[in-house]
Amino acid sequence: MTLKNKQYRLAARPVGLPKDSDWEFVTTDAPVAGDGQVLVKVHFASLDPAMRGWMNDAKSYIAPVGLGEVMRAGTVGEVVTSNNPAFAAGDFVTGMHGIQQYGVSDGKELVKVDPKLAPLESYLGGLGMPGLTALFGLTDVGAVKEGDTVLVSGAAGAVGSMVGQIAKIKGARAVGIAGGADKCRYVVDELGFDACLDYKSDSFLSDMKEPLKTGVDVYFDNVGGDILDQALARLNRHARVVICGAISQYNNTTAVQGPSNYLNLLVQHARMEGFVVFDYIKQYGSGVQELATWYSQGKLQFKEHVDTGIENFPSTFLKLFTGGNFGKLVLKVSED
Amino acid sequence: MTLKNKQYRLAARPVGLPKDSDWEFVTTDAPVAGDGQVLVKVHFASLDPAMRGWMNDAKSYIAPVGLGEVMRAGTVGEVVTSNNPAFAAGDFVTGMHGIQQYGVSDGKELVKVDPKLAPLESYLGGLGMPGLTALFGLTDVGAVKEGDTVLVSGAAGAVGSMVGQIAKIKGARAVGIAGGADKCRYVVDELGFDACLDYKSDSFLSDMKEPLKTGVDVYFDNVGGDILDQALARLNRHARVVICGAISQYNNTTAVQGPSNYLNLLVQHARMEGFVVFDYIKQYGSGVQELATWYSQGKLQFKEHVDTGIENFPSTFLKLFTGGNFGKLVLKVSED
Fold first, then answer.
1. Which of A194, B119, B216, B276 is at 20 to 30 A from A305, Cα to Cα?
2. How far apart are CA B218 and CA B174, in angstroms?
3. In chain A, what residues touch B58 (CB-CB under 8 Å)?
4. A&B contacts, CB < 8 Å
5. What is the Cα Rg of chain A in Å?
6. Residues B203, B315 within the same domain
């Protein structure tokens, strides 16, 4: 019996928000593992803001997804057949198999994970790329230290939620920015941030005063736009602005909004620095170890927003840009 | 005989470019040195872009000049009378006496200079704040190293001209940006930059290709605006963008233009960092020493644009914003 493989391919380069016609939904035969390869059944695919950038035909830190290619995405799944001595059928692995139900790999980028330690989808979230992004961004780029005030946007999101929790572990104050009262309550009551500001509230600007009255030492930016400018206006001397993303700008059809308060970097002798998690590939192992240790000590919480059914990929993906997800967005693409 | 003191005071806060009515020209009696004070006859006043910022009623790294106060400016002059054992009549000193002919000081901020080593006005230029700004900005903030390509805007200006020359001393390539063919020739032929790009030329964007074909490791920005965006588009991995000023934006009556290419910091894991020279006050002494040594070895050249007559201050000051000066702009405010 030949396995069937449903997959989403990039059909057109989107202008603004991706439309249904930018995708092609295909059912084909599953690939077969060749010499040294493994065949993986994908259980969950990770849906991330960065994927929007990979859809543009622009020079970046990684090549764009080609038209007609399976949409790139991080995945976690189970090895079905293995011609690679490092893996056996039944192993669970993270990889980059994209939005499809079966993928093959030479094993180089696969990392074995243990579904008994944490739910499988955690390895796409708090114990995966978003957790590592938060860890390296806050500690290396942001150089967080005890007593700092850390402000983070997208605080209920996959990366932001980890940034604030790691800030607390490091002895800093954590102030989040999120959209809506429910997310803000989650950020403070469940994640343990010191405060959370609702950017959708009419009183957003005045709400910032009290929790940020001693200024911002580290601003971890996931959103860009006006919120970045508000943060720049509140920097302390020698503050660090970590540029991790700019989700407010990814679907722009006009120019990206540059931060008009950037001259505050001069006034405060502050710096703004960007990074992508792939820059830290050699430290993934030790990073996951550190996160897993904190998780086992009950110091980290994370939440996934799981939508089910590969056919729902286009609409589920849009939730990233409309605030429709609450927790790390993952798509269940195969039955267990 | 009472000494007469001509001075310019700030009469109104400018909107956009300063107008004549923003100034009050006053002739008053010169001050008298009190206990522990010295009276200094100002020979030259330094005219700098940063002064435009000091005229705004905005929080910054230094308090604004108050309405009715003498306009703040760096100065070099001669001690006339001294009630301070550290100074004697006939000493030459730099200070912050502002746009006036006589000032008193308790001596704390005065630094003795030797007019035999270099012309007096040099201590407001290459051997003064602009030289120190270039030195600390390029070496500390920019972390320049051998083999880097250093791009600097305002390359014919007081700071920019020193940035490129110090880059060469440090074994880097120096590429300047300046306005007009004359300035560009000066930057290459007299200052020894490897190349200079004329931003007023229609071919500016294509002119950048060849000298920047290996990308930019350090961009030292004095201008902001579109040129900052062009530089951001050409950054190498781990590049450093030094924010020293933004002269294209200082007279804006609309919002400052933020750099819309700032997300290239993320793609290239690059940083953008601001500073003001006052942050390095403890290193002024060693910095001047280093600059003076290079100067004595013939490795540094600098040029002053000297206008004469304190009454010409308002129009001379505007040259900073219209490109009307060529070399460090100083105003001779008293006869020798």
1. A194
2. 10
3. none
4. 107
5. 20
6. no
